[in-house]
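Consider the following assembly input.
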Amino acid sequence: MSYKANDPSLKSWVSVPENSDFPIQNLPYGIFSTKEKSPRAGVAIGDHILDLTEIQSAQLLNDLELPDRVFDRPVLNDFMDLGKEVTVPVRERIAELLNRDNQELQGNDQLREKALIPQAEATMHLPIRVGDYTDFYSSESHATNVGTMFRDPENALLPNWKHIPVGYHGRASSIVISGTPLHRPKGQTIEPDAKQPDFGPSKRVDFELEMAFITCGGNKLGDSISTKEAEKYIFGFTIFNDWSARDIQKWEYVPLGPFLAKNFGSSMSPWIVTYEALEPFKVAGPKQDPEVLPYLKFEGNYHFDVELEVAIAPKESTEKVVTHSNFKHMYWNVAQQLAHHTINGCNINTGDVYASGTISGPKEGAFGSMLEIAWKGTKPVKMSDGTERKFINDHDTVIMRGHGLKNGVRIGFGEVKTEILPAK
Amino acid sequence: MSYKANDPSLKSWVSVPENSDFPIQNLPYGIFSTKEKSPRAGVAIGDHILDLTEIQSAQLLNDLELPDRVFDRPVLNDFMDLGKEVTVPVRERIAELLNRDNQELQGNDQLREKALIPQAEATMHLPIRVGDYTDFYSSESHATNVGTMFRDPENALLPNWKHIPVGYHGRASSIVISGTPLHRPKGQTIEPDAKQPDFGPSKRVDFELEMAFITCGGNKLGDSISTKEAEKYIFGFTIFNDWSARDIQKWEYVPLGPFLAKNFGSSMSPWIVTYEALEPFKVAGPKQDPEVLPYLKFEGNYHFDVELEVAIAPKESTEKVVTHSNFKHMYWNVAQQLAHHTINGCNINTGDVYASGTISGPKEGAFGSMLEIAWKGTKPVKMSDGTERKFINDHDTVIMRGHGLKNGVRIGFGEVKTEILPAK
């Protein structure tokens, strides 16, 4: 599909700094509040937010089949629930309003003043009421690295891995927005060869560099969504830090999977970049061998060329970038993930979150977790202040960023930034 | 704690048939609709439902700090969210109104007529908007049976099992109410020694006999709930059928746990029996050896003597009871489950569901799944129509029931009844 709003030649009358994540071709949705007004929906443009409640009140979004005050809500769910028949034209209309040739908003001093809010004056909020949260495990390099470290380098991937986009259910309640600090979790761990577990703060808190997609609409329980239909249900993407306590996980995860090692918190970037804005960044994925079952076959590209990086900033020190990866380093794509998730009739809903699993590139320097970067603690990473890290220390802040760049257009995600506080 | 509403000598002016699950000492909450009126909250009494919207409108629940029309909602979440300071006195007041000595409702012909609805004329609805759903694995006999069948009879329990109330996250979206048929899931399975998985309808659809508790209120992310505080957060219980596709699970569950084997549907009984109504049925659990970590220690009893049974009715045949178990056959209790769930700071909310895991008693005849009852297919079970079952066939209806019985008072759960339809 091609969208007018993606045209690289478009320019906005709102000033967009060089290297901004938010040119007119992006227009990601978020929920923000200001000192004066409670949380509501907006789109990012340059260093500003366009307040969609003001735009709708001013009758600039008429004829788009929008319910009254649909943006005047603390989450985007009601808007997303309208489906792409509505949300895609809304993005196109916003691009039109922000286009330098358009005077409807640009020429209305009073409205412009009210509707354009500096991001620096806004507080961002979790943009969705999360229904269910699923975490996949879809990067071959990550699964191979973990299998090599903990099992057998010769058989690093488990037998099901190339047949199934392996996934599991995570905790929806503890998904938080960028900027929300998290306490180091306490829990049970066990020393090698010990008979009894210990209890205390995790010693191996780790980030996992992931992307997440968020669904709009859904299927009825019992129905399935094909790979072909999948994109109709994918509203957009965020960067996602799937925090993990490696030592807690190791002891608890057999046989039913990770639980307390994960559910102390997962962090999400505040802006949902639409599926449509990422359209130009679609690329082919790896050849899948062995051949996948028919319900996992697909036509077209569902991988995305989005550069990702992770930095760590110790308390009172500058950040150090510890990895560069890319969302294209996935074996299973989003269409396959959604088709697999629903092949048994599982129903999905607006506001459900699906994280990719740790995105590791094939080479050192592109790994998506400290477990892999510091290779199980054998290769500590030097920070800006000279200290070393095998995992994440108290008061470290982990920052993830991502963007696609093509034809001079940079579609960015902003960042997800989280400080780890000491255990409570 | 003792509650006036639990007094065995109480009798209602509403007729309660012998062996009814719903005497005046129970008063479970549900959501129902009638031909005339949309879903709203009620309590079960005998064969009737007391419409709480009518009772509140008639000013009979004044002075209880209830928000206006709090029962006139399609789910109980807003009511439950008020906390036990409010919900416990409401149950006491309802018991007072239904007491044969009380004339406030009994003596008001017009109101009584409107407020008492025969259950036969009502449709029940899922009573809560489910936040997160967690499934535990807390019955020692079940875990031992599974470990014996699939691993090693000598080491049937995994090393973590007696230290951790093992649990994992399940799918909230596909929790359905009793009476909702479910389609047999399709998915990947693999034959022993095969190199490639097959695809098709599951051949091993199984029930899991569980109880679930539902929380009211919650902790802030980062805080924990102690075993002592746990009961403040447990609103009540239902019977829960955690449907499982054994063949799909076997292939998919390593290393991150069950996913499509479970999320095609989980079935819940319609009435939430309050924690307070179950108070008289508290019993001691088994001695826990090895000693548990301090955060899992508790005082008092948090096991419940609730008799459970499962019946299977093939299409056009009568039901056959295939097992008798009891909720007391748990190793880990509900206070320990909640303390464990939050020890890492994971936040819980009103409307979250926590299933017990399959409840198997220690002996044959008390197992909680077909996997165990038919012992991996080696001991098929005869149905009323003469056919045999190793697992569940298309058009079989599985019915679970439960009740406590003490001092002549029967506190029952009604039933959860689900037909398995052919794969779509």
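The mean pLDDT of chain B is 97. Ask yourself how this observation constrains the way the partners meet.
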